[in-house]
């Protein structure tokens, strides 16, 4: 069953792509290249709420998206996290990090969000979408 995307995600992120299990959205924070994976399942707040096949699919999609983020943003460092303190709906953060980013080596949450300028946002979304489309072929 497909779950409506939480309003907090819609306000702070932009749709990129749908995979078998997850909808992929880009967080609107130009400090860090950052996507979230949101499983399209109703009432799921934790990984343990998923059925076994969905848990396995989630891990596959995390690895798949991680490889895309590494390639598109030319980094070997990623933060992959499931937190859910504010938004209970299960979602996984994949954040490309570099030693030169604004908070290195601290977590991304220690700095204020800086929204993308439209052109930069569109470019990043297009680059990520293109990477998904190339990888699917």
Descriptors for this entry?
5 strands
What does this structure look like?
The chain has 137 residues and is α+β, with helices and mostly antiparallel strands. Helix content is 34%, strand content 21%. The protein contains 3 helices and 5 strands, in the order αβββαββα. A 5-stranded antiparallel beta sheet has the order 1-2-3-5-4. Helix 2 packs across helix 3. It is globular and about 40 Å long. The model has no long low-confidence stretch (mean pLDDT 91).
Estimate the global geometry from the Cα principal axes.
globular
The fraction of residues in strands falls at: 15-25%
Mean pLDDT: 91
Sheet with most strands: strand arrangement: 1-2-3-5-4
Q: Secondary-structure element sequence?
A: HEEEHEEH
How far apart lie the N and C ends?
27 Å
Specify the biggest β-sheet: 5 strands, antiparallel
Q: Over all CA atoms, what is the radius of gyration?
A: 14 Å
Low-confidence stretches: none
Number of helices: 3
Helical content stands at 25-40%
The secondary-structure class comes to alpha+beta
Number of strands: 5
């Amino acid at each position: 069953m497909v779950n409506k995307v939480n309003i907090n995600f819609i306000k702070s992120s932009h749709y990129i792509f749908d995979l078998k299990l997850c909808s992929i959205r880009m967080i609107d924070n130009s400090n860090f290249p950052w996507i979230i994976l949101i499983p399209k399942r109703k009432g799921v707040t934790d990984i343990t709420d998923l059925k076994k096949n969905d848990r396995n699919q989630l891990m596959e999609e995390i690895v798949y998206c991680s490889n895309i983020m590494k390639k598109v943003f030319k980094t070997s460092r990623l933060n992959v996290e499931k937190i859910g303190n504010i938004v209970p709906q299960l979602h996984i953060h994949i954040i490309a990090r570099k030693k030169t980013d604004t908070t290195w080596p601290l977590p991304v949450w220690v700095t204020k969000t800086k929204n993308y300028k439209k052109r930069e946002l569109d470019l990043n979304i297009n680059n990520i979408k293109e990477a998904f489309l190339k990888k699917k072929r």
